[in-house]
Amino acid sequence: MRYIRYVFLGSLGLLLVSVAFANRDAVTLSLLPDAFANLIGLNYTIEMPLFVVILGAIIAGLLIGFVWEWLREYKHRAEAARKSQEVQDLSRQLKREKRRADTAEQKDEVLALLDEAS
């Protein structure tokens, strides 16, 4: 199974390198459309290779997805934490009740011995 993972990661790496070599031309990225940027006065553009834009978009999408999932699963993590705390509380109560039962059992033995002696 480990070798299959290495083969998959290697072929994925070769695919990404191939995409990078095929898309080395520079592209211009603008923050806003030209008409709106001129109206506001915020005309920010940058030139970079296309493969950087593609890989950056993939990474940004993954990060947004991870954050979205983490926020979405908050209620499940909170419920799991509550259940874990409840299990710990019940475990402490059970130990306390077992100690009480052992103490009561010892007292009953003493009473039984006193009854036999009389």
UniProtKB/TrEMBL annotation:
<keyword id="KW-1133">Transmembrane helix</keyword>
<keyword id="KW-1003">Cell membrane</keyword>
<dbReference type="GO" id="GO:0005886">
    <property type="term" value="C:plasma membrane"/>
</dbReference>
<dbReference type="Pfam" id="PF06305">
    <property type="entry name" value="LapA_dom"/>
</dbReference>
<protein>
    <submittedName>
        <fullName>Integral membrane protein</fullName>
    </submittedName>
</protein>
<keyword id="KW-0472">Membrane</keyword>
<feature type="transmembrane region" description="Helical">
    <location>
        <begin position="46"/>
        <end position="68"/>
    </location>
</feature>
<feature type="domain" description="Lipopolysaccharide assembly protein A">
    <location>
        <begin position="23"/>
        <end position="94"/>
    </location>
</feature>
<keyword id="KW-0812">Transmembrane</keyword>
<keyword id="KW-0175">Coiled coil</keyword>
<feature type="coiled-coil region">
    <location>
        <begin position="77"/>
        <end position="107"/>
    </location>
</feature>
<dbReference type="InterPro" id="IPR010445">
    <property type="entry name" value="LapA_dom"/>
</dbReference>
